[in-house]
Write the structure tokens for this entry.
Amino acid sequence: MSTILEQKCPNCGGAVEFNTGAQRLKCPYCDAEFDIAAAPEGNSNEVEQINWNSQGAQWGAGETEGMSVYACNSCGGEIVADATTGATSCPYCGNQVVMKGQFSGALKPDLVIPFKLDKKAAKEALKKHISGKKFVPKSFLADNRLEEIKGVYVPHWLFTCDAIGNANYKATKVKKWSDDNYEYTETSYFDVYRSGNIGFDNIPVDGSTKMSDDLMESVEPFDLSQAVDFNTAYLAGYLADKYDVTAEESMPRANERIRQSIDDAFKDTVKGYDDVESQNVSMNVANGIYKYALYPVWLLNTSWNNEKFTFAMNGQTGKFVGNIPTDKKAVTKASLLLGAGIGAVIYGLMWLIELL
């Protein structure tokens, strides 16, 4: 009989793993790292065992008719679309996808936020985003080609719960004064404690490994008050990413977001100090439920100098994000001009001092 020893992350409560490159324990959920010898047996940021309950429904008879699953042979992603799509390209890596078969199984989404902005708005947003940035290579402005633009419903798990939190903070007050001979600094230290109840509604966690978490979180927030009950009609003309991160696998991240929100909320009440540092945060969560929702995102892929650049736009609010190349020569030139300007000012001040 074999035994598996599981070490919990003191930050988010997830199971940590041994990272061969760093030769340390590392949490795959919050990226925290620990030396093996120093790995704590207890948890300074305690998260009580949370029993999340699903509100998800199963697909009804006939609901999946006319829907097919398409698979990308490059990144392994699976997307759902109507059967008339035939063949398309992967919205994440741009490679061709092929029909895998009739869609079936998987949990049915509870909610969907319909697209409010169309493809034309996404193209205009890309143009504005690029033209509004400094130090963009002129050739990029002229030669970048928009290869692909896709409207994708990105899967999200939404977590709702009531939480009782406790937090300890180390706070300091600094007082300074001087006399004719000396300057004085007095630092006072305080232990501050906070406790309270906080309710959380629909904390989102991205359910797709293909969609970069940084990119997805950058286009937030979405207005969930405009969400509607899911209906396959909303998928017409768009792609829907099939979740590959389950609700259970997303729970450690949801727990960490809850813990961090509790920390931030309590910390905002610690006033009158010069510095406040979190020591530990513990929480007990009850009435935990989760739902499955689809969020609208426009993905735009451009190419320039044999490189691909991916941009994303919130299909509801129009918030647009994405990295663009930088003209290093222009940055260097601007830095040299700035340095020359500062040097001229300093020289002028020294000249005035000499005159005085």
Q: What stands out?
A: The chain has three domains: 1-43, 51-325, 328-356. DSSP finds five helices and 16 strands in the chain. Confidence is low (pLDDT under 50) at residues 1-6, 37-44.
